[in-house]
């Protein structure tokens, strides 16, 4: 009680300062907006390795989806560090039954070393948001890595209980059994180490990429001894695998590693983990040790950007040039090796499979902190700080390699900054007061990455020949094409990423302005090395000619806010292009052959040979997507996987003939296409989502469809020709706040439900209409439950309405679970029934 009183007093004091915190949050909380320092909301780590826990997942899912009076409200997962608690929780949350049982899933991570005052401030800042999200909803709240019950008991419990539904649940993970007891957990799952066989399977997968079991038979005995010494701890096993992947596949080499594995006492909570991690660190070459220890500067649990991390390594001098290999490629290779050795973990990946975000496991972070020693300052991040001036003495930080001043109020950079001849990365994005750059900036020849969003002096970029990443805004302020040409963008032969933008203002641009900005962009032709291009808020009518003829290595293209663009560039001949994202246009009326062809007209061979994702969004006057595939010879869109068309209200149809060539197209999203009347003849689509398409009347010939979602498609009435889709496993329709059109219900009657299928039907009507789906009582007319016969055709049905009312139906067991108040009852309750000829209700 004394501890709780102390926390409540702090909360009152923090409330008094909340207004000040909100106005100056970056300085008070040392956080950039949208970033997490040690605890994260709604961020799930990307854990792909899962061995030997399928049965545990199923048991936990059943506990969490059972009524609270059966399973309790709090469930705990306990185990030592690295045993797999986070992996288990993620797999539970990803389970289809959890996703459709809970309206809201919230994940909060609390580091063991969290600063109590800092955490209190940030939780208070989210309380109002969380309450709005949770009110009346069935919520699953995950509290990860708890070392005490203070966060729950003193901060979150009262808000959670007040606003969430009765059958909301809490799932915690901890290494401390007392935490579960203090929180009143009704069920505690104690994580166990992997079995010897499962451990060997994981070790072999990490060390040898799976390998051939017979080929590795002579190493199996040694490998199993390693697993046994690691107590079956998955993190320790992965660490050992990371060491072995660099060794010879000989028994002597593996036995040398095994003999090097030393252990602490069994009472050590990190027993089985730290010895393996320590051996993994000692096995690192010196250049990787420096990179690894550098990661300890990030707070425990911090999500680290791949790009920022590699740039910081370069700035610190950890990466050395090696002949023809660039420092960026070398840094990427270092990062991949740390990931391979399981000393870093992937959180999010690019399309190509490369890590985009990574993190350190908390046990690995503990190890890095032990060895870390700060040296001379080489990296300085002042972003989001409310600083207005930099002193002249700033130029004396001679070892500085990385400087981030983005989102600051700095108006001018001191000339002494040009003394920083080792500076490689300079971030000046969104420095709204910045009026000029130092006069000698072009002589800072080490600069490789620069973001000068607010610079009007584009010619200052002329001699920055080593740039890898460049961003320029306000290009509409460049007076003429001659000055743009002075930037010599094409001569920056190492450039990989480029963003070019304008500030169109609130008034319609005049003809002269549009012509001038077109000329300026024409002179900004990038080098062939470019891989990523973003053009935004460009208000010319046509894009520069180099878009179609010079970007042979470009992989990612984004065209955002090109409101006056009248036709898309010819991109079909670009051999490396993997992703196109087009957003916000008010002038393109049709898309046709000009988009598919390369410059010069017809092409042979392959059109868009590597394009995987194509997205059109907010193209407000686009009416026709002409199917001109017959004009092309050769292969069309062979790698296209995802097509998204969102908020294109005038588009009349999608080119089925063209898309029939896209044999890898598995996902189609159609959203806000108000004049499209049907979707069909897509032979390879597995996931189809149709939202707010008011004129779609029918679906047909989708033989491989697995997931079908449609919301506010009032005219949809015909799925007769959908076919016998044995692959179909999930249908979602409706909206929790609105009624479901009767035509939609009629269309569902035409869906052929196979006897052996595991098809799930998820219905989201409003609360009033939800009763139409319930079994009828003896006293009810058929009109009171018109959709119950339809519900009975499906193996699994989930229905939920806004406000938390729901029912679940399982055909094989005739089980019906609901919290809806029956006509004969005056209070809500959860009922579970076995449905026979007459529905029997047991409370």
UniProtKB/TrEMBL annotation:
Domain named Disease resistance protein winged helix: residues: 297-368
Domain of life, source organism: Eukaryota
Pfam family, one: LRR_R13L1-DRL21
Domain NB-ARC: 69-207
GO BP of this protein: defense response to bacterium; innate immune response-activating signaling pathway; plant-type hypersensitive response
Entry keyword set: Leucine-rich repeat, Plant defense, Repeat
InterPro entries (alphabetical): Apaf_helical, LRR_dom_sf, LRR_R13L1-DRL21, NB-ARC, P-loop_NTPase, WH-like_DNA-bd_sf, WHD_DRP
All residue ranges annotated as the R13L1/DRL21-like LRR repeat region domain in the record: 458-584
Molecular functions per Gene Ontology: ADP binding
Organism: Acorus gramineus (Dwarf sweet flag)
Descriptive protein name: Disease resistance protein RGA2
């Amino acid at each position: 009680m004394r501890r709780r009183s102390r926390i409540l007093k702090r909360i009152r004091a923090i409330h008094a300062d909340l207004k000040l915190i909100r106005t100056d949050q970056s300085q008070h909380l040392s956080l950039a907006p949208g970033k997490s320092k040690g605890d994260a909301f709604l961020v799930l780590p990307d854990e792909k390795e899962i061995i030997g826990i399928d049965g545990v997942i199923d048991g936990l899912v059943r506990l969490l989806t059972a009524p609270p009076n059966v399973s309790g409200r709090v469930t705990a997962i306990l185990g030592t560090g690295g045993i797999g608690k986070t992996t288990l929780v993620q797999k539970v949350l990803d389970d289809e039954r959890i996703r459709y049982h809970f309206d809201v899933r919230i994940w909060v991570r609390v580091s063991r070393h969290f600063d109590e005052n800092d955490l209190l401030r940030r939780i208070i800042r989210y309380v109002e948001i969380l309450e709005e999200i949770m009110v009346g909803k069935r919520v699953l709240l995950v509290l990860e890595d708890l070392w005490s019950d203070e966060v729950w008991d003193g901060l979150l419990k009262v808000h959670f209980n007040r606003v969430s539904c009765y059958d909301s649940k809490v799932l915690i993970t901890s290494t401390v059994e007392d935490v579960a007891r203090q929180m009143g957990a009704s069920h505690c799952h104690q994580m166990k180490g992997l079995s010897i066989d499962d451990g060997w399977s994981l070790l072999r997968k990490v060390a040898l990429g799976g390998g051939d079991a017979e080929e590795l038979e002579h190493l199996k005995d040694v490998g199993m001894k390693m697993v046994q010494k690691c107590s079956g701890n998955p993190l320790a096993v992965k660490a050992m695998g990371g060491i072995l992947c660099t060794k010879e596949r000989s028994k002597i080499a593996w036995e040398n590693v095994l003999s090097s594995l030393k252990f602490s006492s069994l009472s050590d909570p990190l027993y089985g983990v730290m010895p393996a991690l320590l051996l993994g660190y000692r096995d690192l070459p010196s250049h990787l040790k420096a990179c690894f220890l550098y990661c300890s500067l990030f707070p425990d649990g911090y999500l680290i950007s791949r790009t920022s991390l590699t740039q910081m390594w370069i700035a610190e001098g950890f990466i050395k040039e090696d002949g023809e290999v660039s420092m960026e490629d070398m840094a990427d290779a270092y990062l991949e090796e740390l990931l391979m050795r399981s000393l870093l973990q992937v959180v999010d990946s690019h399309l190509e499979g490369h890590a985009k975000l990574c993190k350190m496991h908390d046990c690995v972070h503990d190890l890095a902190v032990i060895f870390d020693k700060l040296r001379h300052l080489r990296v300085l991040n002042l972003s989001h700080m409310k600083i207005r001036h930099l002193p002249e003495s700033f130029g004396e930080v001679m070892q500085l390699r990385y400087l981030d001043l983005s989102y600051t109020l700095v108006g001018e950079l001191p000339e002494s900054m040009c003394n920083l001849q080792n500076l490689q990365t300079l971030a000046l994005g969104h420095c709204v007061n910045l009026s000029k750059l130092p006069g000698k900036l072009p002589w800072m020849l080490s600069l490789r990455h620069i973001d000068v969003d607010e610079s009007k002096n584009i010619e200052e970029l002329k001699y920055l020949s080593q740039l890898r990443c460049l961003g320029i805004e306000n290009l509409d302020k460049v007076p003429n094409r001659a000055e743009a040409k002075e930037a010599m963008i094409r001569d920056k032969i190492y450039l990989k990423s480029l963003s070019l933008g304008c500030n169109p203002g609130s008034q319609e641009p005049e003809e002269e302005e549009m012509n001038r900005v077109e000329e300026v962009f024409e002179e900004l032709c990038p080098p062939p090395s470019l891989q990523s291009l973003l053009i935004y808020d460009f208000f010319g009518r046509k894009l520069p000619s180099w878009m179609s003829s010079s970007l042979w290595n470009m992989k990612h293209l984004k065209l955002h806010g090109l409101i006056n663009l009248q036709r898309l560039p010819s991109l079909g001949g670009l051999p490396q292009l993997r992703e196109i994202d087009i957003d916000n246009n008010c002038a393109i009326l049709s898309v046709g052959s000009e988009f598919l062809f390369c410059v010069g007209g017809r092409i042979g061979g392959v059109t868009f040979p590597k394009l995987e994702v194509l997205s059109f969004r907010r193209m407000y006057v686009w009416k026709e997507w002409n199917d001109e595939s017959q004009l092309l010879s050769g292969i069309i869109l062979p790698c296209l996987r995802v097509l998204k068309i969102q908020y294109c209200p005038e588009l009349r149809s999608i080119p089925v003939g063209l898309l029939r060539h896209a044999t890898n197209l598995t996902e189609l999203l159609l959203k806000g296409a108000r004049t499209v009347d049907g979707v069909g003849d897509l032979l390879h689509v597995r996931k189809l989502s149709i939202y707010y398409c008011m004129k779609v009347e029918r679906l047909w010939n989708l033989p491989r469809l697995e997931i079908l979602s449609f919301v506010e498609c009032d005219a949809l009435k015909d799925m007769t020709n959908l076919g016998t889709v044995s692959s179909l496993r999930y249908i979602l329709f409706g909206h929790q706040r609105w009624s479901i059109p009767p035509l939609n219900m009629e269309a569902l009657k035409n869906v052929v439900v196979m006897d052996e299928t595991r098809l799930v039907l998820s219905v989201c009507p409003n609360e009033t209409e939800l009763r139409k789906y319930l079994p009828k009582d003896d006293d009810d007319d058929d009109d009171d439950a018109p959709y119950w016969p339809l519900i009975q055709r499906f193996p699994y049905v989930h229905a939920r309405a806004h406000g938390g009312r729901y029912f679940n139906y399982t055909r094989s067991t005739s089980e019906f679970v609901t919290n809806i108040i029956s006509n004969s009852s005056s209070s809500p309750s959860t009922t579970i029934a076995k449905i026979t000829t007459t529905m029997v209700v047991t409370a």
